[in-house]
Amino acid sequence: MRVVAAMSGGVDSAVAAARMLDAGHEVVGVHLALSQSAATLRESARGCCTIEDAGDARRVADVLGIPFYVWDMAARFKRDVVDDFRAEYAAGRTPNPCLRCNEKIKFAALLDKAVALGFDAVATGHYAQVVETVNPDGTVRRELHRAVDAAKDQSYVLGVLDADQLARSFFPLGDTTKPQIRQEAAERGFYVASKPDSHDICFIADGDTRGWLGRELGEAPGDIVDTDGAVVGSHDGAFAYTVGQRRGLGLSRPAPDGQPRYVVEVRPDTNQVVVGTADLLGVNALTGDHARWCGPHPRGVVEVGAQVRAHGAEYAARAWADGDSVEVRVDERIRGVAPGQSVVLYDGTRVVGSATIAAARLERTPVG
Q1: pLDDT digit string (tens) for 310-321?
Q2: What stretch(es) of the chain map to CATH 3.40.50.620?
Q3: DSSP class of residue 41?
Q4: Which of 46, 170, 267, 340 is least enclosed, having the fewest CB within 10 Å?
Q5: What's the CATH class of domain 2-194?
Q6: Smallest Cα–Cα separation from 249: which of 362, 257, 26, 240?
Q7: Active site amino acids
Q8: Is 0.85 surpassed by the pTM of this model?
Q9: DSSP string, 59-121
Q10: Residues at the annotated binding site for ATP?
Q11: Minimum mean pLDDT range among 54-63, 180-189, 208-217
Q12: CATH number attached to the domain at 282-361
């Protein structure tokens, strides 16, 4: 097969490209230029898309003896990921830009361009597994599964892939642990073998999301209120707060019972942040929209595992789909679930699909 290996300049994508070459594929390395003003050097482990990263990827391609190109997707990344991130926070939601990047850039823009140029698939350094199973009619179905390295598993952020995208995707690292990947990179003579991992959010290099949002959206002073509507503090922008947040609230009035208070709601229409006690954070019912299925569309009520954070716990749940929407009822209460987050559904280790959380609430009536 002719395969585009997405090479970020890190150790994972370097080994992924090497393994695809070892498997006998015709491999071409591609580095995605996603920043419209790429820095020469990385500011921290959070940064990405620097000239240094592109150079690291090129050096690996030279060691492998494969062609290497840089594809400029900065405008698409800004529109589909950065602008979306900004708009979601402005609307009082808490997005995950990695899911959006995978959906819109790596497995849409990149894959579409690769196919248009005559390639068969894209390979990345994500930690996940693709398992092929045979259908009753003899056709082969590709399933997305968790990686063997639970600490590095990235199946959550790949839950936005649909069956067609999955059919053209390879994740060569899914059966290996991160220490083994670094050892393999060193044995192959890759300069990036000990290069630090990058972290979310890649386009906020200093990790100060609140500061970035303040610069992008401007200050918008408003009130922090309790659940009775009493003003207990102030803020410079409701967009800087998320459900479940406890630190950095700067409340002027303590709770009458002295208990800590958390953000329980963000109201962008009135520019208010609502705080309350921890017991108000527990929810067991989620409504999701923008459903994406990694395989067959589930029919009726199905037993699933539900995960609402990239490295969070998986909870036993039941789910049912209605067009583009999904209802999920979790068997126990989950704290700090915010609109805009994604819920990814699992059947064992297999990823069933995902949806963006539109609403979360506590339901006391059993399902079915």
Answers
A1: 989 999 999 999
A2: 2-194
A3: S
A4: 267
A5: alpha beta
A6: 240
A7: 101, 202
A8: yes
A9: HHHHHHT--EEEEE-HHHHIIIIIHHHHHHHHTT----HHHHHIIIIIIIIHHHHHHHTT--E
A10: 6-13, 32, 125
A11: 208-217
A12: 2.40.30.10
